[in-house]
Amino acid sequence: MSNQTPKILYTLTDEAPALATYSLLPIVQAFTKSAGVQVETRDISLSGRIISSFPEYLKPEQRINDDLAELGQIATTPEANIVKLPNISASVPQLKAAIKELQAQGYALPDYPEEPKTEEEKSIKAKYDKIKGSAVNPVLREGNSDRRAPLAVKNYAKKHPHSMGKWSSESKSHVDSMSEGDFYGSEKSLTISAATSVSIELVGNDGKKEVLKSGLKLQEGEVIDASTLSISALKAFLKKAKADAKAKGVLFSLHMKATMMKVSDPIIFGHAVKVFFEPVFTKHAATLDSIGVDVNNGFGDLLANLEKLPADKKAEILADIDACYADSPDVAMVNSEKGITNLHVPSDVIIDASMPAMIRSSGQMWNKAGKLQDTKAVIPDRSYAGVYQATIDFCKKNGAFNPATMGSVPNVGLMAQKAEEYGSHDKTFEIPFAGTVNVVDADGKVLLSHQVEAGDIWRMCQTKDAPIQDWVKLAVTRARLSNTPAVFWLDPQRGHDAELIKKVNKYLPNHDTSGLEIHIMSPVDATIFSCERIKEGKDTISVTGNVLRDYLTDLFPILEVGTSAKMLSIVPLMNGGGLFETGAGGSAPKHVEQFTEEGHLRWDSLGEFLALAVSLEHLGQTFHNPEALLLGETLDKATGRWLEEDKSPARVVGKLDNRGGHFYLAMYWAEELAKQTKDAALAAKFAPLAKAMEENEAKIVEEYNSSQGKPVDIGGYYRPDTVKTSAAMRPSKTFNDILAQLA
Ligand SMILES: NC(=O)C1=CN([C@@H]2O[C@H](COP(=O)(O)OP(=O)(O)OC[C@H]3O[C@@H](n4cnc5c(N)ncnc54)[C@H](OP(=O)(O)O)[C@@H]3O)[C@@H](O)[C@H]2O)C=CC1
Ligand SMILES: O=C(O)CCC(=O)C(=O)O
Ligand SMILES: [Mg+2]
């Protein structure tokens, strides 16, 4: 491998991180090129993925490579070195908006066929559905997850604690979940003793049989589980939750993961919308059906479709909606000025980020008057909801956490090879008729079985053995390296977790655990244990499955350091390569809105800096490349200084933003390279650059800051115009000229 060109693949994504890339990548490429390291880009943006899926509809010059497929393949090779920025996991409304924008830009793409009739439409829908939801991360994540706040980041947070809402023991905020009929209550699981192939069959109460899936290959040692959610129980629960929110005078707020759980959660979301607006749906059922309303895409879909109706009919329905609002608890708002509620679009409120944000704000969310108010967080399934209730209880009892003193909860997450719920989409079904769902093996033996009613959701998950072994090893390695207690968050009451507990107990003895503190606790107990420790300033590693990996790596970072953007997020790929994710958060659509309205980008690129440093280190080690190692080391030092000197972007216009922050990183990085003594040639190359930046610091900052305060046109949202965006993101001519000297 050492005679191949060392190469980092840097991903082009969406929204705020994509904007930031326009400013940061030229710096990175200039620096790395000078040291003989190549940084190439791969387009995995939503628009890029759409364009590359429909070459036959496009002019030859519009066609682009399927970079995601290429990266997915590379991720399984030892030389993989990928820096992955957050991307949009598109809900249907986002997908449609992106298609519309691309069509307007001259791409003759087909519309998204909501109800496909012809074979062609079915094939178009299948292609779009592959792009929908979380379609990138599962492809690239050929390894487990190691997410933590580096020491420099914790120290920065302690020195500059972010604001944290106070907690009162009187708070009425709480989590509400089903008490029966959910996935949690119905989960069954087993470990496969010999490789086989299974099918999933629905046998109707009348004997009718439908094969839902066949030929699903299972490996020896693989854990499978299946569970079902009863729709009648869900509806009854939602109805009760709505009435209870009204009785208690708290906001009603639904928290799902409709992006990642792209089959099950939009259905649950749709039921919540229908239950909340029940009188409207009952009275206008036929009309709403005739205009093609699909509330799995949110209440916004209903509002958009009303445009198809004559004015008087539309007014009648709108009046009934108003009457329904008047009779209901207030709904938590995404944007109170624009009247957008949490029920409008399923991708606006995503549980991993939304619950911690609520907990950071005293357990409150925004009401329609734009004021914070106590909230009922509706999380129908019980599997993980208890973690949030336990955190809320902890804050009610002990007051808010103190970022200046609190400890840390890093995470080791089981994620590889589409583990657990996050790989269940192709085995999730909305049941067409009442009966029994059976998972049947190659010998015709029924492995798992559930009674279901029409409309229920049934799903099966897989967790392969090799990733489990790797996860246990990673947990022990992290516990050893950081000398920190590690807790496996596994619930013996759950079928799947019970199987995993057996595996953990089987594989832990393969490692030297002497002197390490390792526990297995249910998620609720683990939450209490970890919260008590962080309050005392102590660290505790959470070792979790895939969903809690996602939830906890927003929850604790948001409480500890204000945002999960500051996380180091490493995916040691199982075949030896490295995937370096930038932060643990998403693509921050709110930041784009602020940028286009007032020219200030508050996106914090710290996650990119951290990821790039470990990517360079990995590259240096894999290819025995001292220049890459040196670039990584100096970047790490520069990042440390960047934090010490507090060059993080401000939230408000007129002050240093993302772009000015990049300039400071470049200056510190050049200074570190000029200062080091391992490579005199590199030092000589970077010394004049550092000097030029130092001498022009004030002028450069002025050029950045004075570009703010006015609307910015980037010529597109999902596919911005590259020339316009580059100009907007690189407004300092002085800095651009200095950087050009490196070329
Ligand atoms: N790894 C990935 O690819 C991920 C992708 N996503 C996708 O991202 C989109 C948005 O998801 P959402 O749930 O809103 O979560 P986000 O993490 O994008 O946003 C939540 C909030 O977190 C803060 N934030 C996140 N990243 C940064 C950063 N680098 N700098 C400063 N603040 C930051 C912002 O808060 P503030 O308002 O305080 O500035 C932001 O509004 C969706 O399409 C989702 O599917 C989500 C998670 C991970
Ligand atoms: O892929 C996605 O949709 C979200 C991923 C995510 O939230 C995470 O990994 O933290
Ligand atoms: Mg997440």
Kindly summarize this structure in a few lines.
It is built from 28 helices and 24 strands. The chain is of the alpha/beta class and 743 residues long.
Label this structure with key terms.
binds 2-oxoglutaric acid; 4-stranded mixed β-sheet; binds magnesium ion; EC 1.1.1.42; binds NADPH dihydro-nicotinamide-adenine-dinucleotide phosphate; about 750 residues; tricarboxylic acid cycle; Isocitrate dehydrogenase [NADP]; single chain; Isocitrate_DH_NADP_mono; magnesium; alpha/beta
Query: Alpha-carbon distance between the termini?
Result: 27 Å
Major sheet: size, sense and barrel closure? 10 strands, mixed
> Helix coverage percent of residues?
40-55%
Cofactors, ions and other ligands in the entry: NADPH dihydro-nicotinamide-adenine-dinucleotide phosphate, 2-oxoglutaric acid, magnesium ion
Unreliable segments of 5+ consecutive residues: none
Mean pLDDT: 97
Overall morphology: globular
Strand ordering within the main sheet: 2-1-3-24-23-4-15-22-20-21
What would you note in describing this structure?
Its EC number is 1.1.1.42. Substrate binds at residues 134-141. GO terms for molecular function: isocitrate dehydrogenase (NADP+) activity; metal ion binding. The protein is globular. With 743 residues, it is an alpha/beta fold. Helix 1 (15-34) runs parallel beside helix 24 (658-675), helix 16 runs parallel beside helix 19 (523-535) and helix 24 packs across helix 25. The chain starts with 6 loop residues before the first strand and ends with a helix. The strands form five sheets. It has a ten-stranded mixed β-sheet, sandwiched between helices. Among the domains are: 7-142 and 573-740, no CATH class; 174-183 and 230-398, no CATH class. Helix content is 46%, strand content 16%. The model has no long low-confidence stretch (mean pLDDT 97). 2-oxoglutaric acid (AKG) binds at residues 89, 134, 137, 259-260, 352, 550, 553, 584.
